Each structure stands twice: as C-alpha cells, then as structure tokens.
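PROTEIN ENTRY
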Amino acid sequence: MTFNDFNFDQTLIDGLQSMGYKLPTPIQQQAIPVIQAGKDLIACAQTGTGKTAAFVLPVLDKIIKTKKGGINTLIIAPTRELVLQIDQQIEGMAYFCGVSSIGIYGGNDGVTWERQAKSLREGVDIVIATPGRLIALLQSGDVKFETIEHLILDEADRMLDMGFADDIKTILKYVPEKRQTIMFSATMAPKIRVLAGHLLQNPESINIAISKPAAGIVQQAYVVYDNQKEKLLKEILKNEDFSSVIIFSSTKEKVKELSQTFKALKYSVQGFSSDLEQTEREEIMRNFKARNLRILIGTDILSRGIDVDGISLVVNFDAPPDPEDYIHRIGRTARAAKAGVAITFINEKDQPRFAQIEALMGIDVMKMPIPEEFGKGPEYNPDAAKKKFDKPRTGGGNKSKPGFKKKPFHGPKKA
C-alpha cells in the first residue's frame, strides 16, 4: 500500500513527499480509511508508530476538498510539547495545501494570548490545544466552535493521568454534538474505555500498541538503595561516550535537585519541568537537539514530548510507575535504527513494578553489580518487596537469576 491508495489530493501528496514520507505505517493503513469513512474511532497506538499522520492526513484531505470556512478540526493534547509537535507536522504536510493551523497552549505572554484568541475568532482550519488554555479562551466568550466537524484526542490516557477529565467534559459543551470523534491512546485501560463510551458513537477500534522496546536498546538495571543512586549516576556519567543523555525522575523536586548537583560538578545539564516558562523550555530543547547540551533531566512529560534522534543513554533515576511508561521512556534512545542504552535504578519499593515491566516485555533485564566502594545493594526479590511494602500489584516474580557481570557497566555495548 502507498499513500496514493488513499486518493489524497495531489497537494497533500506533494507535502508528504517533501517531508520524506514513503509508505504508510500499520496504524496509518488501518486508521485512515476509517476516518475517511466518517466513523468515530478509538485507536491504541504508541509514539513512533506514525499515529499523528494517521489522524491528520485524512482530516487535511477533507478540508482541502470541502473547505467551508470556520474552525474545522479541534485536536486536544496533554502537553505544550505535543501540541507544538503536532502543529509542526501539520505545517509540513499542509505546506502546499493552504490549510491553516495554530497551537494553543499556556505559559506565554499577553501578546501570544491575543494572537491565539484572534486566530480562534477568525476561524483557522485546525486548532491544536492543551485543555487548560483552550478553556480559558473559550470562557472569554467570543470564540465559537459551531463549525467543528472533527474532535481528536491524542494521548487520551496521559490526559486522564494528568487530571484533565473534567476539562475535557467542559470543552465538549462548546463542540457540536454532530461531529466525528477520534481518540488515540497508548494504552487501553478501563478508564479510557469509559471515556470513549461518553465521547464516541459506535466507534471502530484499532490496536497497534507496541509494548516492546526497540531491538537496538541495551537494557540494564541496578538494584540499589536510594542513597546509592546519585553516586552511581555520577559514575555512569563519567563515560563520555554517552554524549546525549536523558534522565527521568519521578518528581519536579528531584529534577531540580539533580540538575543543581550536576551543574555544580560542571556538567552540561538542564532540568526540564512544567515550572519553566515556555520560552525557556523551547530554548532548552533547541540546545539539546543541537548537541549544545549533553544532559536533560525531567519527569515523564519528557517521555512523550521529545522527538530527538541520537540519544545515547536514558537513565530511569526512579523506576517508572507502569510498564507502558517504561517503554515510552527508554524509547527516547535507539531511534532511527541506532543503538542506545537504557539504565534503571530499582530500589526495594519499586521491585514489584519493575517485575511487571519485565513480564510485559517477556525478558529479564540484566541486573548490574554496584561498584564495591558504594556498598552492597538490596537483593532483587520483587515478591518479598511486594509483601514488605504491601503494594496491590502482581509482579512477574524473580523467574531466574540474571547474568550478573563482574564489573559494572560503564560504556555502550552492541545490541
């Protein structure tokens, strides 16, 4: 199958060719015909599967062929980074089409607010927005959504995790009941199906979830106590072969603490969190992409809001809360058919959840020995940890002892 099989307008095909699109991905092959048929859709697909083009292309094609004026499509996304990514992709694909779009997000000045409000009033074709800023603009009273034909929710699971359920309900009050609704999610948890039941009418369902890491990722883990994590991280970062590094932490406070610690050690490092102004975040990302910044430290907002090739190392300073988050985090490395390393620090409390991750992937991640000078770490026994911390989770258990090596890992290895 090629993109010509979808009978897209030639200007759209030209845009795809200019961006280097060659063949449709599996999610595009399945989702585009459903959306072209005007049916509601719930699709399970992760970042990296081509999901953005899967919902943008058929919408662009319809706008080109039946342009009526006014706002045609509303896309809601959980973070400013994802809004910007989607807007940039639309700009590229629609370059020859004359279809207009705007990203609506907070964290900026009054001039930007007025520009966003003016675009909504005058009727841009596609609006991509975070829930909070969109509601603020809607409540100003002079923005109308009666011409909207398509409502798209991207990364719906992340929006629910971030507490946007009530915001979505509020936005629905401004959107026509007669519309096509499309929902994309990386997971198909029960809460997503409940939301879909409220939003969608007789939807088609597609599942292209990839709960497996890329083959080029070398996965390793250290079983540690919390007071050993920082010392171990310093040791790992001595390896200059790790030229582009992302470190994930569970809290903004720890992000700030780690970034201050490594700045004091003269590392090229920046913390990345929602506390920063949008201009600051964009500047940090530009420096990281340009390799002017070696280390980026952030929370899970980075796992889905960053699209950078050539990241050589991902470190989970704290084990992620669930298996899908782990896949998203380590998926920042080994992109574009390149190799990369993913290292996770596992304390006693996190052992059961890491066992779930191993069970999902169907592998035992290599457990690396801690340097002797750091002292001994806890044993990896997720079943015992589960009882100790009384966690309502079921882990994969310690199925077999991993192949410990005599020396700690301090350099990239071939997959």
Observations:
- Residues 390-415 have pLDDT under 50 and may be disordered.
